[in-house]
Design brief:
alpha/beta; Purple Acid Phosphatase, chain A, domain 2; five-stranded mixed beta sheet; globular; Serine/threonine-protein phosphatase 1
Length: 220
């Protein structure tokens, strides 16, 4: 099975739907590398759709945790005294849940159990990547960890695929110095949502980018 890896969605539900049309569950694993929520207009629908996709295609899907899922998890479990989630889009996300009459706590167990990474012998996929000089890369709350890192990536003996840091030109970028792809193309900024298709051995097939749907972003 090949891999179809989707970058940061950030509540851009209608854009996400369009990109998912390019997934073939008979021949591809779907891997989403986190940050389903916040920023865009439809975080509840995006979470619900992802949850339902995984229920329907348990053997073909991997949803990873992003830093925004980690913030949401802490807030819903009462472990966010500094209100970090509120400052990073959580206030609007909770209003969306209220407007949609969707209880976010339905999904808290699923969010808590999202893995931090997926790998095989040739590919390593995470939200923000393994930094070249990371002190504690496996700590989900560390600034240079798998969920928050913005430092240069370590060159592994595997291809890394990450998101987290938006590419404002809307073009996914291969970084030869670290043998890594960044596929966050700023969907919530009104640019586009990107997926990359690769073989299970890391061989590149293609990238697919879908322009952000106007319904997903305010004032677009």
């Amino acid at each position: 099975m090949d891999l179809f890896i989707i970058g940061d969605v950030h509540g851009c539900f209608f854009t996400y739907l369009k990109l998912l049309q390019h997934w073939n569950p008979r021949s591809e694993y779907l891997i989403q590398l986190g940050d389903l929520v916040d920023r865009g207009n439809h975080s509840p629908k995006t979470i619900r759709l992802s949850y339902e996709i995984q229920l329907a295609f348990k053997k073909q899907t991997i949803f990873l945790k992003g830093n925004h899922e980690q913030l949401m998890q802490h807030a819903l479990l009462g472990k966010d005294p500094m209100k970090n989630w509120e400052r990073n889009g959580g206030t609007e996300t909770m209003l969306q849940f209220e407007r949609e009459s969707i209880d976010p706590y339905i999904y808290i167990s699923w969010i808590r159990n999202l893995p931090l990474f997926w790998e095989n012998k040739k590919v390593f996929i995470s939200h923000a990547g393994i930094a070249a000089e990371a002190i504690d890369p496996w700590n989900p709350d560390a600034t240079d960890g798998l969920l928050w890192n913005r430092k240069p990536l370590q060159k592994m003996d595997k291809l890394q695929v990450v998101g987290h840091t938006p590419l404002l030109d809307g073009k996914p970028e291969f970084l030869p110095e670290s043998n890594a792809w960044n596929i966050d193309t700023g969907a919530y900024k009104g640019i586009c949502l990107t997926g990359i298709k690769i073989r299970k051995n890391g061989t590149f097939i293609e990238t697919i980018s879908v322009p952000t749907d106007k319904r997903d972003i305010k004032n677009l």
